């Protein structure tokens, strides 16, 4: 079931909200069980054959977590329990996501013809990383004992289950335990609807609207310079509004339940460096990779050379997390190299004089964006050689077509670029602050109320009218 579908908007979401708040008048735990059951139903509608796997994963990790939290184990036993838990999670993820990739590469090396076709469970990357973080924190003594219904809801919570954000137990489970969120809050419901409407518009009108232009580069056998750049830029903006739209819709849906999700997307194309880009793009994944991979590898504590090695390892694995293909490995390697260059520049270049600060920031933003666009070509391409064909065309300014189709595409891409760089993001519009549990203060105080409400109604109407029957979110395949 998609957020941008009529059954979800008109049937599923209203029914789940009504049941949640009705039960909230009678019990503090019953709404949690209801929401967990509804989340499983949400998952089952599209991936019923993997519900048992999801439940088994929850039971396995909850059991390991209980051993780490409540059982009085010796230090070696605790380490063994953590190792079993993390290894079990990674083994399941590896089988379902990477077995086919490994078989293909072995076939290429050995000349064999072993065929491995395993259907990828939707959301497995997200709920696996979520639970690994839980186990590691439990081992570190940073997790309290949680009731099974609250833990199950933490893993299955449907606004995040399919495409993130990667949730952290300390942010979510305490909210599920609070009685206050079980009662309807008119202001939060209104703000949630507005944020959902903005996200729906981004997805159905903006992301889906520019998607046809992606074919200029990625479906052409020999794209010209302008076609390669227009197609690459079209995908750059499609992915931006697709992921931004999903992130907004997830936050908006959750807010209707009185639950605050972490911000996962914050105008990343406004970043003036790759380091800043990764603080704005898929922010919860960046935090997970930093806290549970980069820092345990040693981070920057063992000298500059090993820091760069750790960055490369982290980003290579981050690329593989997105998909089992060499294109994702190259994408991760590019971003690893970008980060190494960025950190080396910061270490070697003296402080920028104040008069040059603004021009340098603008130049940094342009270079960062161009580097990101080139990397997205590998992220989107089916094969590395196809990506190289596109990047070669992007480096050949003598081969230009610029016909009627290309001029129309240029106009559309320019409009999207203006929206990305000049328009405020949803957090700025709505004053959404996950950390302080605040949202929509201008709306609450009556300031901008008519403008926000009328604008949200219009955006929601256009978003609903723009719904297409097969318009999946790009991150669904990860």
TrEMBL record:
The chain crosses the membrane at residues 6-23, 30-46, 52-69, 81-102, 114-136, 143-163, 183-201, 305-322, 360-379, 407-430, 451-469. It is a multi-pass membrane protein. It is found in: Cell membrane. Pathway: Glycan biosynthesis; alginate biosynthesis. The keyword Secreted does not apply. GO terms for cellular component: plasma membrane. One of its GO terms (biological process) is alginic acid biosynthetic process. GO terms for molecular function: acyltransferase activity. InterPro entries: Ac/AlaTfrase_AlgI/DltB, AlgI, MB_O-acyltransferase, MBOAT_fam. Keywords: Acyltransferase, Alginate biosynthesis, Cell membrane, Membrane, Transferase, Transmembrane, Transmembrane helix. Pfam families: MBOAT (PF03062). Belongs to the membrane-bound acyltransferase family. This is Probable alginate O-acetylase AlgI. It comes from Bradyrhizobium niftali.
